[in-house]
């Protein structure tokens, strides 16, 4: 059987940086060529970054993508990679398409280019366009309807792009009809919790249906709310795992595959000579998968790091209250950026307990981040001197004084402000606009409160296992949560226990269960009605909250979109 050395380049592009992404293609291809790879594959829309959203509707951006892929082909040959076949995702357009209402302007297409010997030999346009969850591809792209199979060293290779794997028909069937030896799928598949290794199950199933070895290369890195976890893999035609890349790490997954000789008539181009002389293959690598909490933590670190660095910030600043949310956010920031780039600000008020201030100081010592104290009483008193406030307005004034201090430091010193609120608080509106909701990024935006505690405990256990200092003070994990905006205040004064709250929120927010459904499941009707009303009323706050990395199956933002002006209310 013919052999091919396949390299899957699990790399991290930046949206809009066409020249920088092209340089990544050259660098990783040269690395693959040095290791004897015959075929090098890059993820979906790699040259433009993914997702490009409405950039796809700008003809100038499409033109720049088309020019970049042509120039890349020439550069690869000039850099000594003319004998490697490179498959890379880029943005193109359907030629000759007339403008019409109901189709994206200029008919952009999500494409893969096949590059060899200084030329773009052929391209493939994505056939299945997802239009659910975080995906709006029917808005941005025109679907392709033509197969793409080429012959490389005696092996037929059929291409697919991401959603083409998740839907039956199209590329999977084309690979089968072409009797392809390799079904190569390039992907921009975001991470989410509790997929239960659905990706491997799906790839194995599609490989069996196609009757071909299936190579799946996925993007890695963060792009706004989305995090791509890599986890590239190869399975044989029977669905057995051959090789797998680590999660959340850039790198090459190399595999020597013995593949069936080309016998079909599906290939339209033959690349290179016939089958290669037999050679000794590399031992395949199968990276172990992370456990569930390590995955979630890694996703947040990846999303935070890339948001900060890709947007040109050198450091971050956040409020340190001594509570669990700010403590976990600080630990995540230190792991993502290094403690020297993290600035923690204690902002005590007259209601701040001594142990909370002490816990903030303890966290700063444990992590080594930059720490200072900025008491907010003078700011609060200055406002009191001009505006008479009391009750909830007075509580919110304290939060807004803290937001004012953080934004002043951000503007004067160039830090990005991190909001520290969690998904449970955001769901029920326990955030103060222009107060604790200020910031450019919210690492815990999609992390329910119960998961915050789990992640904090996991992070400390990981440090202990490594013989390192536990970053989060035990008292921050153990003490009852409180905003400390009035004497003796606890979250439990106005919310059900967080395990109950998160259980209700999971059903309502993630699964769209009705109030009647929840009561039928055994939840108290009064509690259900109260929580659901709080969620519905807080939509206007969520619209104004910073972006944060998606880790659950349904995050606030691009995943869950509801009208602000809305009189529909669930009643159980």
Note the topology:
Blueprint: E1 3-10, H1 18-34, E2 39-41, H2 59-78, E3 85-93, E4 108-116, E5 119-125, H3 137-140, E6 149-152, E7 155-161, H4 163-166, H5 171-177, E8 182-187, H6 198-210, E9 213-218, E10 220-223, E11 226-229, E12 233-235, E13 241-244, E14 251-258, E15 269-271, H7 292-310, E16 316-319, H8 324-337, E17 342-346, H9 354-367, E18 370-373, H10 377-384, H11 392-413, E19 416-417, H12 423-428, H13 449-465, H14 474-478, H15 498-510, H16 515-520, H17 525-537, H18 539-543
Helix pairs in contact: 1-2, 5-6, 7-8, 7-13, 8-13
Description:
The protein is elongated, with a radius of gyration of 26 Å. The protein is of the alpha/beta class. The chain is built from 18 helices and 19 strands. Helix 5 runs parallel beside helix 6. The protein folds into two domains: 272 residues, Nitrilase/N-carbamoyl-D-aminoacid amidohydrolase (4-Layer Sandwich); 198 residues, Rossmann fold (3-Layer(aba) Sandwich). The chain starts with a strand and ends in a 29-residue tail after the last helix. The strands form four sheets. Strands 13-12-9-8-7-6-15 form a seven-stranded mixed sheet. Strands 5-4-3-2-1-14 form a six-stranded mixed sheet, with helices on one face. It has a four-stranded parallel sheet with strand order 18-17-16-19, with helices on both faces.
